[in-house]
Amino acid sequence: MILLIALATLVIGLAEGIPLGKQGQRKELVAMSCLLGMAFLLAAGFRIGFPSPITLLEQLFEPIGKAIFK
Amino acid sequence: MPEKGIINTSQCIWLLFIVIASIASMQIPSILILQAGRDAWLSVLGAWFLDVMLAIVYAYMGIRFPGENFVQYSITILGKYLGRMVGILFPLFFLLVCTIVIKGLGQVINTAFLPRTPIDVILISCFFVSALIGRKGIEVIARMTQILGPLYFLSIVTLCFLVIPSAHIIRLKPQFDEGVAPFIIGTPLILVFFGVCILMAMYIPLTNRPENGFLAKFSAVSMGAIVVGLITTFSVVCFGIEDAQTMYSPGLQLSRLIHYSNYLERVEMLFLLILVGSSIVASSSLLWAFGLGIAQLTGLKSYQPLIYPGALISLVLCIVSFPSSLQHSNFIHYTYPIVAIFVQTGLELVLFAAALILHKRGTV
Amino acid sequence: MRKRALMMLFLVPFLQTGCWDTREVDRLASVLAFGIDRIPGNEPILLTVQIATPDTAKGGNKDVKAGGKAFTVMSSKGKTFSDAIHNLGSRSMRKVFFSHSKLIVLGKDLAETGIGEIIDDLKRDREFRRIDWILTTDMTAKEILEHGFSMEQIPSKGLDQILQESKESGLILPVNCNDFFVRLNGDSHVSFTPLVQLVDIDKQMTSQLEEVAGRPLESEVKPKTLTVAKTVIYKNQQMIGELNENESKALMWLVDSPKGGFITYTFAPEASTNGEKGKISLDISDGKTIITPQISDNSISISIVCNAKASIIEAETVGIDILNPMIVAQLEAKAAETLKLQLEQIIDKAQKELKSDCVGFAEHLHTQYPVAWKRVKNNWEDIFPTIEYHVSCEVRILNTGMINNTLPTNEAGGIN
Question: What average pLDDT does the segment B234-263 reach?
Fold first, then answer.
């Protein structure tokens, strides 16, 4: 799975990044790379055992939800 | 503004409707029935009312800050830094909803139609298509919803008419069997799913008549409430609350009940067709909102490059956060409502109050 | 442009997800009906499936293979129901596919020992549909499924047609899985299914005819016939008893509004009107039952009001004047009385013999008096047999068929 994500990161990075680079839109390039990096880090983090942000949300709010809802 | 497209009021209505309907017609009815029992349909009505109330605030803010969506006016109101911190919550929330929608859709397809297909593959293809649509911009999404929305609405209504022979109204009685508590707790539970149409705040600056924002939201939520209400009510009158609350997708099960002697049966594929279409369009507009929101926060000239990365993040979230349908169901039952009510109601009301107190106004 | 084409090429495989679950029609064996029995041993579930034989199911191909039957019956056993389905794969050349099944037959042993273990799978598995008919048999399900009809090539299709017609004809209330499950989940946890039997009707009738004729008849020996006329009652997922033909018809009045039916009774006109004693048959075109519980200081009583619209289809009674409103009123009153007796009989049986609420009083009490229901809910089983009830029926005769009065026999120069 992680390989597939890495591949997707690469493909999206190249497909979106090259035109941006050519047009000189540095800011867009940085923002896009950040998001791609986040996606890859999430996948990689999960691989080595980091919880996903949704799991964190769950740990934070689930007790409240369980108290309210059946 | 990175988005150059302009939509009209009717497109805005269908855009909002399809987001509500696709979210609310998968496993939400069964969770609602678990919570509210036979009073589930009343909870839908209650949520409809509250959401219309909330729409007034959003519509007012849309007029008070002309040409700005909530990501922008949170910066206008709260200043550069605090405003950005608040503003980023909206795009992130849209990404979360997108994750939930696609995972829910993938789960339904995987459980009921393609059991041998790995769910990851279904997710990847869904995300690919919705990112493809989302990158084309709001006008493309709007035109798609203009076709899919009426189709969706009509087919759900037709579906409910067709299951009438299996329905027994006595299963809806008695109302308020366990007092009013189930109804009262059920209302916010379904409200948070209707509440995703805070997306309207992203659309209002792009409509040709921003003053119709409330009208659009009102129509969309009313239609969404009809769809969800119909599915919930018919699930109860067809399956009884005991079975309906354990079903993964009551709407799908309803479509499997349709049979007219020997010629009209097995229509669930049509239901699936509509569900897939609308969920993908809904998630594409959520991805679009995410991309646009982030682009505005960081001051980019275009949001298009951010759509595919956003879809990738959402896909990774799907895979790493919900290894099975169990986590997903638990998340939308217990965690999502708390998060959503905070973003949809809490944040917007804070912004509203701050705008009033600080006398902030948009510039024309 | 080139890059986009490359990207498309890379992602196209993901749009072909359907290929994972591809199923060729000629690799599938469509199950038309299946039955479940309980057998001794460590693999207690015996599954029997009735599959349309592919060659004969194809229209126009009269070139029937050896055996010549349009259907094949296969059995397999397993530790659980799904295990038995799984094991079926080892002897079926084609993938056994349940989505097209029309009915489910539960064997007697299974029904008596409890069906809880198979219900979960019937609800959970995506191939089963909640619109399948559910039937119980007093034999084994295997015997029923192996038996054919003379008029229909595929027996499950024949049974399906019988059940579809039976609601209109008012003979028995057909039950599909959904209704069965919903009733089992209901307040009284009592449900029912029609009973399918193999009855040697032909032999009975022949012997009766022989009695009249006084000689052995020259008729062929015919196989037994599949018959659906009785009802089996389940309580807490276990079969507890059965209702005979008349009770099954009456049950329809209590749990549903019948759309058809038949009342036959003996009618003797009152002294003030003309006519002789004879039998009358009414065809019920529409019926409606209103069940209202009444609560008065700790005692619960149920009032049952039936309304039926009927037409006369046979009036054997000689000399009555059907055009006379008084006679019609008498006919209606007598019919109502007959119907009332039938209903009282079944409620009596439910209270005294079966001691289970198959007539649905619990539901009505719960829907109309939720608070009182909570009080009696836990000992409903003890309370139900003691509940008083009151039945009142009203039959309205709307038409008299193609003629009105029968000619008096003496005027026509008949028997007298």
Answer: 89
- In a domain? residue B4: no
* List of residues 6+ apart from C214 with CB closer than 8 A: none
Distance from CA of C7 to the nearest CA of A (A): 8
CA distance C280 to C406: 12
> In terms of CA atoms, which chain A residue is nearest residue B330?
A62
Residues of B in contact with A36 (CB under 8 A): 309, 312
Closest-CA distance, C4 to chain A, in angstroms, reads: 8
C130:B121 CB<8 A: no
Sorted by sequence, the CB contacts under 8 Å of residue A68 that are 6+ apart come out as: B185, B337, B338
What CATH number is associated with residue B95?
1.20.1740.10
- The structural domain count of chain A equals 1
Among B50-59, B143-152, B162-171, C256-265, which stretch is predicted with the lowest mean pLDDT?
C256-265
Report pLDDT digits (tens) over C201-243.
888 888 888 889 888 888 777 888 888 999 999 999 999 999 9
Residues of chain C with pLDDT under 50: 56-58, 60-61, 63-66, 412-416
Shortest Cα–Cα distance, A59 to chain B (Å): 9
Domain C254-416 has CATH 3.40.1130.10: no
- In degrees rounded to 5, what are phi and psi of residue C24? -85, 140
Domain that holds residue B209: 9-357
Q: Is residue B170 part of a domain?
A: yes
C190 in Cβ contact with C358 (< 8 Å): yes
Residue B323's pLDDT is 87
- Collect all residues from A whose CB is shorter than 8 A from any CB in C: 11, 14-15, 18
pLDDT of residue B311: 95
Compare C320 and A4 and report the one with higher pLDDT.
A4
Distance of CA B23 to the CA centre of its chain: 4
Residue B364, domain member (yes or no): no
Q: Helices B80-87 and B70-78 meet at what angle, rounded to 10?
A: 150
Q: Is the peptide bond before C44 cis (omega within 30 degrees of 0)?
A: no
- Whether A15 has its CB under 8 Å from any CB of chain B: the answer is yes
Tell me how far CA of residue C203 lies from CA of B90, B136, C5, C207, in angstroms. Answer: 79, 77, 76, 6
Q: Residue A24 is part of which domain span? A: 2-68
3-state secondary structure B93-133: HHHHHHHHHHHHHHHHHHHHCCCCCCHHHHHHHHHHHHHHH
Q: What is the pLDDT of residues B303-351, one digit of tens each?
A: 999 999 999 999 999 999 898 888 999 999 999 999 999 998 888 888 8
Tell me, yes or no, if B259 comes closer than 8 A to chain C by beta carbon: yes
For residue C183, give every residue at least 6 positions away whose Cβ sits within 8 Å of its Cβ, in sequence order, or none.
C190, C191, C192
Contact (CB<8Å) A25/B301: yes
What pLDDT is attached to residue B134?
A: 93
Could you state, in order of their start, the residue ranges of all structural domains in chain C?
24-243, 254-416
How many structural domains comprise chain B?
1
Are the beta carbons of C21 and B243 separated by less than 8 Å? no
pLDDT of A9-54, one tens digit each? 998 888 888 888 888 888 889 999 999 999 999 999 888 888 888 8
